[in-house]
Design goal:
Elements: H1 3-11, E1 30-34, E2 47-52, E3 55-64, E4 74-81, E5 84-91, E6 101-106, H2 115-122, E7 125-129, E8 132-135, E9 144-150, E10 159-160, H3 169-186, E11 195-200, H4 203-223, E12 231-237, H5 243-248, H6 250-255, H7 266-289, H8 293-307, H9 309-312, H10 336-345, H11 347-353, H12 367-375, H13 384-392, E13 396-402, H14 410-419, H15 425-430, E14 434-438, E15 441-449, E16 452-457, H16 464-467, H17 469-480
Parallel strand pairs: 1-2, 6-9, 6-11, 11-12, 12-13, 13-16
Antiparallel strand pairs: 2-3, 3-4, 4-5, 5-9, 5-10, 7-8, 14-15, 15-16
Family: Belongs to the peptidase S10 family.
Signal peptide: 1-20
GO molecular function: serine-type carboxypeptidase activity
Length: 485
């Protein structure tokens, strides 16, 4: 199994080259501002740049951008961290923007643009074709203000002045944490508003570290007389929080009735079952007891080749086991994706959102980011430790998973949530999975204890808001209201 193919699954993107990714910031008219700002006062013709003397090494640019048929005010901008520039979209809530919570959404990868989440899953508008968008009645901004961010640098419309790349989630987390502090400090009406970090796929790696960086940064903000960021929760969908738990579960989802029916022959399942003990032993020695980067990577690929490669030969969609899509042509099952890239490559769209005229065709994937992250072995680190520490500090965590996903399946995600060591582990494990419903129909199963919740969504694959929009919005709205699912 080549790493490129694995990356394609985790980021949900197509293969295109990035052109024109480097350009001069000065090409876009920017007016500097120091002090509080109001969103309604922002122009659409140029960016307003904002910064704070106590939040060093980072500023941001923002403007109005009416490009999405979403029924609300929308904004775009860049987070400027030295020579690194992260692109973002921001949409106000359809309900009560002056009081509703704030969400930040990121897609996976590493290197996958959040345009997929915006235009194909949970944004105010869905892609309607290569030239237009349409209103999404199930957008996650129904009761929340929401950011979509292209990160790390080099992803989507994000860029670096000299082509540098961020090679680890830890480094990217610091930029996101600083920006959240700057945003809440600058736009005073949002100050103290609850923040929820949301995302899917490789966001299972991103978000626990983003949350830790934001939480730990609050001590510094307080010491400087600034308002701490009110980190309320983390929401991860079909996440890659624990790669090994996912890979080991490939046996379960192919050879048992965990999802539909056994997909593999008895002979294939016997070979997979025999490989499991060696996989677990290699993982324990090289990745858990003592982390050795090279040995851990070798363990990962042994496990993946033994347990994952058989699935790839079936011709099924890695994002949805109920669909048949050849592994190298999985976009045949999702025609929206090429339309998103065509739409965002058009000059009138790029002008409206403030992208430099020298930027070329938009691509949903950065292979440079992918290779940089794998070179640093970023995907091999377990992240449940960060989830546990956030839970201990009162941050709420929701892990949800579409039951038809293969690559980041519900079995593996449930497994690590039960194995994670924290003060509520015994109580959490003791709780049974019970039904949760939407409009009188069972939507999935849920287990909850204290501030930790795990939920499944029946009939959904990797992209839950795309596959089950009404159910995913109901889940989010109940979570924001702190109600039981």
């Amino acid at each position: 199994m080549k790493m490129k193919n694995l990356f394609g699954f985790l980021s949900f993107v197509s293969v295109h080259a990035i052109s024109g990714a480097l350009y001069e910031q000065a090409a876009i008219n920017v007016v500097e501002n120091v002090g509080p700002l109001e969103l309604l006062s922002l122009p659409s013709e140029h960016f307003i740049q904002f910064s704070h003397p106590e939040i060093r090494g980072l500023s941001a640019r923002i403007k109005k951008s009416q490009f999405c048929d979403g029924g609300v005010d929308s904004y775009t901008g860049y987070i400027d961290a030295g020579t690194r520039h992260l692109f973002f979209y921001f949409f106000e809530s359809r309900n009560d923007p002056d009081n509703d919570d704030v969400l930040l959404w990121t897609n996976g990868g590493p290197g996958g643009s959040s345009s997929t989440g915006l235009f194909m899953e949970l944004g105010p508008c869905n892609i309607a074709g290569p030239n237009s968008t349409k209103y999404n009645p199930h957008s996650w901004n129904s009761n929340a203000n929401i950011f979509f961010i292209d990160q790390p640098v080099g992803t989507g419309f994000s860029y670096a002045d000299f082509g540098e790349t961020v090679v680890s989630t830890e480094k990217g987390a610091k930029d996101v944490a600083k920006f959240m502090a700057l945003f809440f400090e600058t736009f005073s009406k949002f100050k103290g508003r609850p923040l929820h970090l949301t995302g899917e796929s490789y966001a299972g790696r991103y978000l626990p570290l983003f949350g830790a960086a934001i939480y730990d940064q609050n001590a510094e903000l307080k010491s400087k007389g600034l308002t701490p960021v009110n980190l309320k929760s983390i929401v991860i969908g079909n996440g890659a929080t624990d790669f090994f738990a996912l890979v080991k579960s490939y046996y379960d989802v192919q050879c048992t009735n965990a999802v539909i029916e056994p997909l593999q022959s008895i002979g294939e399942c016997v070979q997979m079952r025999l490989a499991l003990p060696r996989c677990e032993k290699m993982q324990k020695l090289a990745c858990i007891d003592h982390f050795d980067a090279m040995d851990c990577e070798a363990a990962f690929w042994f496990c993946f080749n033994a347990l994952g490669t058989p699935y790839l030969r079936l011709g099924r969609n890695p994002y949805d086991m109920s669909m048949r899509c050849p592994v190298n042509h999985h976009l045949d099952c999702y025609p929206e994706q090429p339309n998103i890239e065509t739409f965002l490559s058009q000059k009138w769209v790029q002008k409206e959102i403030g992208v430099d005229p020298s930027f070329g065709n938009f691509s949903s994937v950065s292979w440079d980011i992918y290779f940089a992250f794998w070179a640093s072995r970023d995907p091999l680190h377990q992240n449940s430790h960060y989830v546990a520490e956030l839970l201990e500090r009162g941050v709420r965590v929701l892990i949800y998973a579409g039951t038809y996903d293969w690559i980041a399946n519900w079995v593996g995600n449930e497994r690590w949530t039960k194995e994670m060591v924290w003060s509520g582990q015994a109580g959490y494990v003791k709780e049974q999975l019970v039904d949760w419903s939407v409009d009188g129909h069972v939507a999935g199963k849920v287990r909850s204890y204290g501030n930790f919740t795990f939920a499944t969504i029946y009939g959904a694959g990797h992209l839950v808001p795309h596959d089950k929009p009404a159910e995913s919005l109901a889940m989010l709205n109940r979570w924001l209201a702190e109600e039981e699912l």
